[in-house]
Each structure stands twice: as C-alpha cells, then as structure tokens.
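Re: weekly structure request thread

Next one in the queue (66 aa):
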Amino acid sequence: MEDLSELEIRNFVKSFHKFVDLKRELFHSQIDELQKIIVNQCKLTGTNPLSQEMAAGAFSINIGSC
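Done, posted below.
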C-alpha cells in the first residue's frame, strides 16, 4: 500500500509541475501580447499608452473608477 501512495504522490508532483509550466507559458505569452498591443498603440497615437498610469502611480493618484 505504501508503494501506491508514493506513486500517487509522484504522479501528483509531476502533474503539478506540468500545470505550473503551462501557466508560466501562458503568462509569458500574455505579457508578449500586451507588449505588442502597447507598441502598436504607441505607434498609432504617438504616445505611451501607459504613461498616464505610470505618472499616477508615481504620485499615488487614482485613475478611473477603482
């Protein structure tokens, strides 16, 4: 019975590592897409779309409804 438990634990750990790796890949692909969107928006508007948010963060000013 102990061997089965060890096998189950190993399988769980393997599955968990795979899950974490997939989430990491998804996160990085989302960051890449966000960067592309920001670059395109900057090219279209001529300004950094995040500049207002960055300035507000620097001065601790809330923007929007949050």
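The CA atoms of residues 7 and 62 lie 51 Å apart. The two ends are 54 Å apart (CA to CA).
Next request, please.
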